Amino acid sequence: MVPGGGRFADLVRRAQARRRFHDVTAHRLALKATEKYGLYLTQQYPNLVPAAGFREVHECLRAGKVPVWMACSVVAKEPGVPASWDVTSDSLAAWCSARLAATDLVLVKSVPVLPPRMAMSDMCASGIVDHAFAGFVRPQLNLWVCSKGRYSTCGDALQNSGTPGTAVDRD
Questions:
Q1: Considering the chain, what is the average pLDDT of its residues?
Q2: For a pLDDT cut of 90, what percent of the chain falls above it?
Q3: Which residues pair with 106 in a beta bridge?
Q4: Is the pLDDT of residue 171 over 80?
Q5: Are strands 104-109 and 66-69 parallel, antiparallel or unpaired?
Q6: How far is CA 60 from the centre of its chain?
Q7: Of 31, 52, 59, 72, which is most buried, counting CB atoms within 10 Å of its CB?
Q8: pLDDT value at position 143?
Q9: Taking a C-beta distance cutoff of 8 angstroms, is the pair 2, 71 a contact?
Q10: Residue range(s) defining the domain that contains residue 168
């Protein structure tokens, strides 16, 4: 699981607008925001475990737990991930999925119910995902979006090898 920054990241956005600090600083603070939200989630759900590095992610998976990626220490050192608001947890999830050689990625988004299929270009244009997202998605990755109002059915589908939401088509 790659958490978003939620309200914590919104605070960083507002602070940057007021104080006008550099994007690199804002990016690092936003990464910390994703970790804060991730820690909150691990306290709410006992099967979720914080995992800072990819080795820890693999250890959690082997133990039958759900790793919640604490991305800051890994991403801050990664030159392939721009320090920009164009890169949010959506892009980080796609980047992480490539590092883990994942075959599937489900984005859980608080957007209205989406159609059964959607083009990636439409997702990007409508702001469902960040501007950099398409550049981080590997061609062989199966991609879905689980939208608001379908969270429970997406969870059921994931547990039963079903379709967990809107299928995303490459353009």
A1: 94
A2: 86
A3: 144
A4: no
A5: unpaired
A6: 18
A7: 31
A8: 96
A9: yes
A10: 102-171
Do residue 81 and residue 107 come from a single domain? no
Are 122 and 153 within one domain?
Answer: yes
Same domain flag for 5 and 70: yes
Tokens of 121: 């270009």
Sheet strands (E) in 24-162: 48-51, 66-69, 104-109, 117-119, 142-147
- Other CB atoms within 10 A of residue 171 CB: 8
**Do 79 and 2 fall into the same domain?**
yes
d(CA 3, CA 23): 20
Do the Cβ atoms of 165 and 154 come closer than 8 Å? yes
- Number of domains composing the chain: 2
Domain boundary among 85, 119, 137: 85
Question: Please, which pLDDT band fits residue 135 given cuts at 50, 70 and 90?
Answer: very high
CA dihedral of residues 166, 108, 121, 168 (deg, nearest 10): -30
- Give the whole-angstrom CA distance, residue 57 versus residue 166: 26
**Rounded Cα distance, 103 and 135, in Å:** 17
